[in-house]
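User: Before I run my own analysis I want an independent prediction to cross-check against. Here's the chain; please return only the structure tokens and, at the end, one sentence I can use as a sanity check.
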Amino acid sequence: MTNLELVLNMLAEATTTEISKQKEPETFEQNRQVAQQGGEVAGNARKDIESKTGQKVISSKNAKQLGRTGKLKHQD
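Assistant: Structure tokens:
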């Protein structure tokens, strides 16, 4: 997963959270719709990036394959 993939994932999650705060869904179906809307925002951003760069954003590589093998340090 590339940095850009991580950022788009964070965008989807943050957008979904904000939509949820505003709409205050109560049922599973309402929550599903909110999640779909958050994902749509990130999906549109991905498509826009791809159209402007001419390159795919999504990669099949994981963090280890990208060389991110360092461990995170735990802060006390």
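Sanity check: Residues 28-53 form the longest helix (26 residues).
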